[in-house]
Design brief:
two-stranded antiparallel ribbon, about 325 residues, five-stranded parallel beta sheet, Rossmann fold, alpha/beta, 9 strands, 15 helices
């Protein structure tokens, strides 16, 4: 490992995170982008601890309007968050006017909560870890990165059309996501769900992109899911470097090979499974013409900005 000499972690994870903010990293972008896979590989080496899906951003960035609006509104709504709508209101709890009052308390709350999990999961005397928080709710990226400016950011980016396709699969009867709050989508509701999911991907990609642009260049990197699938060892090496962990190439390659999609048992992968197809471009086979058109209408600008549209598709999305 590079950086300061390893310390030992006793029974005060909150103090550790307070004193070692640069050892805190975030994987942000979107759910269904390979973040679970990436976290599993990063935590496969000693000295990296993971915090999986804390959903912090869902509490700090409540969606406005509610998803129901995409099926009931007169015209497609503009997706925002409650804080975006209310931040200038002095009565709003997270009002910008009182930021100096609530931001330090929020920082302490996050450190205390993550620190408690470190205390619970790591033995006393363990080598001080790099702490990687996977997908905290990326629509709150601006707030989280401003609250922890010395932390590190991995922007995990995936073609939004494949993200929508993956979530549509999760909204099927019998899928892994039903027990976690998803629902079997009716045939007549698919288009509205496509529009909602497309709006969410667009919002999150814009939010993480803004936070990434402002963040210290030495503490950030973009990892594309498609590149991670094509050459996992090379991209994983970049991800380890981003969180300030120095492993030799053989170690990285061994981690990548032992966590490959092909090693997942056939009964644990596929449609309606948490581990699905891992095949970029699958949306072209799964979504009909109207659904593809709706996706491009909403996501087109961001897809083009990140190089996911060719010239012909860009013209259709314009």
């Amino acid at each position: 490992m590079t950086g300061p000499p390893p310390a030992t972690l006793g029974l005060d994870g909150e103090r550790y995170l307070t004193d070692n903010e640069d050892r805190l990293s975030w994987i942000m972008g979107s759910s269904r982008s390979g973040s679970t896979w990436l976290l599993e590989m990063l935590t496969a080496t000693e000295g990296v601890a993971g915090i999986d899906d804390p959903h912090l951003g869902h509490h700090l960035g409540v969606w406005r309007p509610l998803p129901l609006a995409w099926a009931t509104a007169e015209e497609r709504p503009r997706l925002r968050t409650l804080s975006e709508v209310k931040r200038d209101k002095p009565g709003y709890f997270f009002s910008e006017r009182y930021r100096d009052a609530w931001l330090p308390a929020l920082q302490q709350l996050v450190r205390a909560r993550f620190g408690a999990q470190l205390d619970d999961e790591l033995p006393a005397g363990a080598v001080a870890p790099r702490v990687v928080v996977k997908e905290p709710g990326s629509h709150a990226a601006d707030l989280l990165l401003s609250a922890f400016p010395r932390s590190r950011l991995i922007f995990l980016l995936r073609d939004g059309r494949d993200v929508v396709d993956s979530w549509l699969d999760a909204h099927q009867r019998g899928s892994w996501a039903i027990d976690e709050g998803a629902f079997p989508v009716a045939d007549h509701g698919r288009l509205a769900l496509v529009e909602w999911l497309s709006s969410v991907w667009t919002y999150r990609t814009e939010a993480v992109g803004r936070a990434y642009a402002r963040h210290e260049p030495s503490k950030r990197c973009v990892i594309r899911y498609e590149s991670l699938r094509r050459d996992p060892a090379a991209e994983l090496e970049r991800a380890f470097a981003a969180i300030d962990v120095d492993l030799d190439a053989d170690e990285v390659r061994a981690i990548a090979e032992s966590n490959s999609y092909e090693l997942v048992s056939p009964g644990s992968r596929g449609p309606r499974r948490r581990v699905r197809t891992a095949s970029p471009g699958g949306w072209q086979r799964s979504l009909d013409h109207d659904e593809r058109r709706a996706m491009h209408a909403i996501m087109g600008t961001q897809l083009a900005a990140w190089g996911y549209l060719d010239a012909g598709e860009s013209e259709q999305a314009a």
